Amino acid sequence: MWLKRGMIKFQGYSKTQKRVGLALVILIIALIVFSSYFLFFYTKQCDTAECFVSAIANCKRVSWIREDIQANWLYTITGDAKGDSCSVEVRLLKIKEGTIENEELQGKKMDCIILKNDIKLPEKQLSQCTGLLKEELQGIIIKEIHDYLLNSVGEIKEEFEGI
How many angstroms separate the CA atoms of 98 and 146, rounded? Predict the structure, then answer.
C-alpha cells in the first residue's frame, strides 16, 4: 500500500512539472512572436508633418495620414534604403476632387526612395518611386498634357504664322 502512495505522489509531481514546462515553452513562444511583431511589423502613428519629417531623418518606422483638399495619402516608412535615404510606401487612400478615372487610383500604392534630409512629399518626386500608383499617375499627367496640346494647337499655329 505504501508503495502505491509513493508512486502516485511521484506521478503527480511529474505531471505538475510537465505542465510548468509546457507553460514556459508557450510563454517563450508568445514572447518571441510579440517581440517579432514590434521589431518587424509595428509602425508608430505620426499626427503631424513635423513628426514624419523627423522620422525620415532617422528612417524610423512610422506612418502618417496626410489629408489635403484633393486626396488623403498614407505614408509608411518601411526602413533604410541604399545610401543616405529611406524607403517609403505611399498609398492613395481617397480622392476628394477629380474625375471618375482618378477614383480608380484609390487604394493603389507605390514605393519611393526619399533622401533623409529631403522634405519634399514622395508623390512630388515620381522619378524616385516605383509601382502601380506611379504608373497610373504618370498616365494621367501624360493624358492631361496631350489634351492641353491638342486644345492649344490653334493658338500655336497662329503664333507661327505671325513669324
Answer: 18
User: Which residue carries 495620414 as its cell?
Assistant: 65
Burial call 46-69: b when 16+ CB within 10 Å, e when fewer = beeeeebeebbeebbbbbbbbeee
What does 62-80 look like in DSSP terms, one character per residue?
A: EEEEEE-SSEEEEEEEEEE
Residue 59: which residues within 8 A CB-CB, separation 6 or more? 77, 79, 80, 86, 116
Distances 158 to 58, 134, 150, 154 between C-alpha atoms, Å = 55, 36, 14, 6
Question: How much is the pTM?
Answer: 0.69
Closest CA to 127 of 141, 144, 117, 145: 141
> Would you list the domain boundaries of the chain?
1-42, 44-150
Helix (H, G, I), strand (E, B) or coil at 67: strand
- Identify the bridge partners of residue 114 per DSSP, sorted by sequence position: 86
Using an 8 Å Cβ cutoff, are 33 and 26 in contact? no
Instruction: List the chain pLDDT tens, one digit each, 163 residues.
Output: 445 554 445 555 577 778 888 888 899 898 888 877 766 667 788 888 888 888 888 888 999 999 888 889 999 998 888 888 889 999 999 888 776 667 788 889 999 998 888 878 888 888 889 999 999 888 888 988 988 888 887 777 777 776 6
